[in-house]
Amino acid sequence: MGWFTLMLLAILIWLLYRLYKKEPKIYTDKPKEDYIISETSSEKRKPKKTKIEELISNTRKEREHLIQEREKITPKFQELGNGMMCIFKKKVFLFDQEGYEFFNDEFIIFDGLDIIEGYLVINNPANKFPLFFHRRFMRIDIEIFCEKNDLGEEDVIVHHIDFNKRNNRKENLRIMLKKDHKKIHGR
């Protein structure tokens, strides 16, 4: 009797499989395409947007895109034990407290803020040359150095002592003659 029960069970499974696998028969004179209901037609159709609604939607999308782009180019600051860390365009810049305050007071013009050759700069439309943060931050020290040594500002460089262009702490910046700077970098 055990094999008989197994045989009946196998036949039942086979019949159920055939029943669910087959397409239901629809008796009609219409071609098959007319009576097959597509998934899209069963969903509720959204009413078409008017031109004003479409403009508003596009404006929202453009605004969201601009906000996302602005977020990418907005520097984010994090406090460190001995200063601040600035993350801008996926690069990390270091400031001491004085440099951070200078950045916030005089240098933070978002539309012109950029990175050129690894240096933090402002592309100033009024000036055809970019303003480098480390040079601008040390401008008073540059003036004093030039005055003491009877030099012009174009004769001096602000050197990053640890050779890290993104470390703009005052103790890492040193004013030196261009010719001495070239010797250090082997140029």
Radius of gyration: 36 Å
- Sketch the topology as an H/E string, one letter per element: HHHHEEEHEEEHHEEH
Structural class: alpha+beta
Strand order of the largest sheet: 1-2-3
Mean pLDDT: 79
Helix content: 40-55%
Q: Total helix count?
A: 8
- Taken as a percent bin, the fraction of beta residues is 15-25%
Query: What's the overall geometry?
Result: elongated
How many strands appear in the DSSP assignment?
8
The description of the largest β-sheet is: 3 strands, antiparallel
Low-confidence stretches: none
Distance between the termini: 98 Å
Description:
45% of the residues lie in helices and 19% in strands. 11% of the residues are buried. The chain has 8 helices and 8 strands, in the order H-H-H-H-E-E-E-H-E-E-E-H-H-E-E-H. The mean pLDDT is 79. The protein has a domain of 115 residues. It starts with a helix and ends with a helix. It is elongated. By secondary structure, it is α+β, with helices and mostly antiparallel strands.
Layout of strands and helices, then pairs:
Elements: H1 2-21, H2 32-35, H3 39-42, H4 51-72, E1 76-80, E2 83-88, E3 91-95, H5 97-107, E4 113-116, E5 119-122, E6 131-132, H6 133-137, H7 139-149, E7 156-160, E8 173-177, H8 178-185
Antiparallel strand pairs: 1-2, 2-3, 4-5, 5-6, 7-8
Q: Any descriptors?
A:
three-stranded antiparallel β-sheet, 8 helices, single chain, 187 residues, 8 strands, alpha+beta
Summarize it.
This protein has helices at residues 2-21, 32-35, 39-42, 51-72, 97-107, 133-137, 139-149, 178-185; strands at 76-80, 83-88, 91-95, 113-116, 119-122, 131-132, 156-160, 173-177.
